[in-house]
Specification:
Distance between the termini: 8 Å
Strand order of the largest sheet: 4-3-2-1-12-11
CATH architecture of the largest domain: Alpha-Beta Complex
CATH superfamily of the largest domain: Medium-chain alcohol dehydrogenases, catalytic domain
CATH topology of the largest domain: Quinone Oxidoreductase, Chain A, domain 1
Largest sheet: 6 strands, mixed
Number of helices: 12
CATH class of the largest domain: Alpha Beta
Shape: globular
Radius of gyration: 19 Å
Number of strands: 12
Length: 314
């Protein structure tokens, strides 16, 4: 049974038609925490009554990709929940390959609601943004997009002690939130490239993280990256972006993309339990599941509603 779930920016991309392979009428959602009510014959690691985090990525644990830790490319799984099979925005959800696709919530975690953030956005911000960007101590980092994913990259980037974390977003409220989350500087999207160059003495940033999923954001990363820098794309893109190779070819720039694998979820759970990471601050709104359309309206008008993550409770 899914006790808490949430809405992801990817769900909005699906509703806009950016993810064409999603079948009509599919139940969306790929994040959640819940209580196991039944198990299949192949499940050995869990039992009914266990409280679990539902991974957004389904892993068989046996195929070549899973053995490499690349669960997103599992031969019979990957991102299927709310994508190819019914997802978590329901009272009950079936989880294939449960042994590799659930994480046991340890006893003593009285507040399970924030653990929903470990299903997707925190691993995504960390793996696709921070790890792909190879953030090092002293680096200058720019994160384009101060939504939940960008803020997750901001929170986990601080594990590596960068000297600057510059958040860029058109929403003044989200930039204020970013300051409270640890951003050293914030910039509005208008003329952000000039602002970044001013903050970095004309050099640019060592790491640029794209956390929006529109061509303009990716091209901004290209404009502000320093020689030898790393561009990490996190956003879900529905349109092509221009690759300015005529400017980048001699700059030793690395561009990396990936779909989250959720290999970092156990580590992130430890940091949450220790108090070093506080995902609850990402939650701004709560709705019962039967008010899901109002929840989607709130999340879809995030600037108007000052929304980050919206929790749905079954």
């Amino acid at each position: 049974m899914a006790r808490e779930t949430t809405i992801c920016g990817t769900d909005l991309h699906i509703m806009k038609g950016d993810v064409s392979e999603v079948p009509l009428g599919l139940t969306l959602g790929h994040e959640g925490v819940g209580v196991i009510t039944e198990i299949g014959g192949g499940v050995t690691c869990f039992k009914p009554g266990d409280h679990v985090i539902i991974s957004c990525i389904t892993s068989c644990g046996k195929c070549a990709a899973c053995r490499r830790g690349m669960y997103s490319h599992c031969a019979d799984g990957g991102w299927v929940l709310g994508h190819l099979i019914d997802g978590t925005q329901a009272e009950y959800v079936r989880i294939p390959y449960a042994d590799g696709s659930l994480h046991l919530i340890p006893p003593g975690c009285d507040d399970e609601e924030p653990l929903v953030m470990l299903s997707d956005i925190l691993p995504t911000g960390y793996e696709c943004g921070v790890l792909n960007g190879e953030i090092q101590p002293g680096d200058a980092v720019a994160i384009i997009g101060a939504g939940p994913i960008g803020l997750s990259s901001l929170l986990t980037a601080q594990f590596y002690a960068p000297s600057q974390i510059i958040m860029i977003d058109p929403d003044a409220n989200r930039l204020e939130v970013a300051k409270t989350f640890g951003a050293t500087h914030t910039l509005p999207s208008d003329d952000a490239a000039a602002g970044v160059m001013k903050l970095t003495a004309g050099i640019g940033v060592d790491v640029a993280i794209e956390a929006v999923g529109v061509p303009e954001s990716f091209e901004l990363c290209e404009a502000i990256i320093a020689p030898g820098g790393r561009i990490a794309n996190v956003g879900v893109h529905g349109r092509s972006a221009t690759l300015h190779l005529q400017k980048l070819w001699a700059q030793n720039i690395t561009i990396r993309t990936r779909l989250v694998d959720t290999v970092s979820t156990p580590m992130l759970l430890k940091t949450v339990r220790s108090g070093r990471l506080e995902p609850k601050q990402l939650i701004t709104h709560r709705f019962p599941l039967h008010e899901i359309m109002q929840a989607y309206d709130t999340f879809g008008h995030a600037a108007r509603e000052k929304a980050l993550k919206v929790i749905l409770t079954a």
